[in-house]
């Protein structure tokens, strides 16, 4: 999907996007190999960059930049990854961070999902949290 988007799009937000990856890895900092692998895959995989990139560009278009928007973009990416794991727990390892079957995939998806909500709660914006909870 990223190949369809011009590279100039990503240059607008490269520094912010790098910080989003760092936030995801920090939020999932653990010695558990599966979780560490998933964090690295989500944070650094080119195909995973489109959703947080869109969130960052939209924030910039609305005049917002910085840590708040980076945290929101990281949450968007974690929610997407969580839902992808829940919907397709048996994807091959090269297509998903967990090709280990249903139980580990669902647990990893739950961890990502709750991590995203933790990040949104840390922002202190009940309006955003309410929209996510209703979704």
Question: How would you sum up this structure, described in words?
Answer:
70% of the residues lie in helices and 0% in strands. The chain is mainly alpha-helical and 135 residues long. The radius of gyration is 15 Å and the shape is globular. 34% of the residues are buried. The mean pLDDT is 78.
Structural class: mainly alpha
Count of discrete alpha- or pi-helical segments spanning 4 or more residues: 7
Sheet with most strands:
none
Mean pLDDT: 78
Evaluate the radius of gyration: 15 Å
Entry summary:
The relative contact order is 0.13. The longest helix is centred in the C-terminal third of the chain and has 22 residues, at 102-123. This protein has helices spanning 7-11, 14-27, 33-44, 50-61, 67-87, 102-123, 126-134.
Chart the SSEs and their pairings.
Elements: H1 7-11, H2 14-27, H3 33-44, H4 50-61, H5 67-87, H6 102-123, H7 126-134
Helix pairs in contact: 2-3, 2-5, 4-5, 5-6
Keywords:
about 140 residues; mainly alpha; 7 helices; about 0% strand
């Amino acid at each position: 999907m990223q190949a369809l988007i011009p590279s100039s799009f990503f240059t607008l937000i490269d520094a912010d996007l790098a910080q989003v990856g760092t936030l995801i890895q920090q939020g999932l900092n653990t010695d558990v190999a599966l979780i560490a692998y998933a964090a690295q895959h989500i944070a650094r995989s080119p195909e995973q960059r489109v959703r947080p990139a869109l969130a960052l560009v939209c924030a910039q278009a609305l005049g917002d930049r910085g840590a708040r928007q980076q945290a929101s973009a990281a949450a968007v990416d974690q929610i997407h990854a969580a839902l992808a794991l829940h919907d397709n727990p048996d994807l091959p390892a090269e297509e998903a961070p967990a090709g280990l079957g249903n139980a580990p995939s669902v647990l990893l998806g739950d961890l990502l999902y709750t991590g995203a909500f933790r990040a949104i709660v840390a922002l202190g914006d009940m309006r955003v949290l309410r929209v996510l909870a209703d979704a």
